[in-house]
Each structure stands twice: as C-alpha cells, then as structure tokens.
Amino acid sequence: xxxxxPAPAADGPSVVDIAANLARVRAEVQAAARAAxxxxxxxxxxxxSKGHPASRIEAALAAGHRVFGENRVQEACEKxxxxxxxxxxxxxxxxxxxxxxxxxxxxxxxxxxxxxDRLKLAAALAREMERQDRRPACFIQVNTGAExxxxxxxxxxxxxxxxxxxxxxxxxxxxxxxxxxxxEDPAPHFALLRELAARHGLGHLSMGMSAxxxxxxxxxxxxxxxxxxxFGPRPAP
Length: 237
Ligand SMILES: *Cc1c(COP(=O)(O)O)cnc(C)c1O
Hints:
The chain is an alpha/beta fold.
C-alpha cells in the first residue's frame, strides 16, 4: 500500500502523531496571536518533553521544532547532552522547581530557567553563571494564586526579589512565569502576571499550558509551555 501510515509505536503516539500535534498547536498559536492582534513570532512555543523518552523528542526535532522544556534536572542531564550534540540549534528551557544544589547542572544544561522564586536560588544561579560563563535567560516564578503548596514568589515579594536579582546579583532576568491554580479561571492570573511584568519593564511572560495556552496568548504570553497537546499523555513516572 503506497500511503499506509506508519504503525503507532508501542510506547505511545507515532512520529506522525507528534508532527501532526505540533502542526495543530502551531496553527492554534498563530490563530490566537492573530485574534489578539499580535505577531505569531512574538510567541515561543516550548514543547514540554518531561517524562517522554528521547525518541519522542527526536520526532519533534525531525518535524522542525527546536524549543523544549524539562522540569527535572536529572532527567534533563540524562536526555539532553546527546540530543544537543545531534541538534546543535535545539534550545532547552528548564521549567521546574529547582533545588539550590542543582543550580550547577541547571546552568550547564539549560538555555532558560523559568522557576526562580527565592534569593538563595537566585544567588546560587548567579554564582554558577559566573563560574561557567553561561547566562541562561531567567524568569521569576510568581505564585499569583498565593497557593501554599505552590512554588513562586508571592506578588507582594516580587519587587524585592527582582531588585536583588538585577542589581545585586546581575542575573539576566527577562521575564515572569506563573502556573495559575488548577481550579480557577486562569485569565485574572495571566492579567496579574502581565501587570507585574510591565511594572518592572520585563518583556517576557511565560504562561499557558495545554489547557489554556490560547487564553494566555490573548493575555500577552511570549512563552507558552505545552506538553500533553504535543507529546500525548506522560507515562507514569
Ligand atoms: C508539565 C508542565 C507544563 C506542560 O503541561 P501540559 O498540561 O502537559 O501542557 C507546563 N508548565 C510546567 C511548569 C510544567 O511542569
């Protein structure tokens, strides 16, 4: 049969599925940008590959995608050196909670770090950037819903953290990141993040996941972090 689709891989969506998913999500990013009167190239689609094997990431790379997200340092360090060697223009955004003692590996493996939320971590990252002479873009995570179990600096603590990061630590802070409470309308959280970023003259807004990236783009997101809609459900860890 001439045009038979490849059989799905036993471990999940086939190569074709990932390429098709990427094409669909890219089209939706473009449509959401257009509807908001924005240029689609203002928006970076981070394909969140946490929990998925390198073979899935390679399918996305082969489909032309270059920007990925991981949330665990150890997993990133296991998967990414080989991928980067094969695809030198791939970029990795670290989007997860980071322990201070993982700052060295995070700076070594990542091109951007999205979850800076406390001075001690910021200081450890600044030290490593100096030592390694590598400067991943930095995003400060804001706990916009003030959820006790969630990472992120509270909105009231943001001014002080931004000032310390910029002026004492000279961290390359480029934007803010948030994960709205799962059970609430995300729109007010996106609006708050945008307002906080504007107040500090920060141009980048990392917000929006599979369920809400369109709304995030309407609210000004420059970086959307989309996993499930591209790679399918994550295998149980
Ligand atoms: C896992 C994760 C995502 C992607 O979530 P999906 O719902 O699979 O799109 C985005 N941001 C962060 C911080 C994550 O940990």
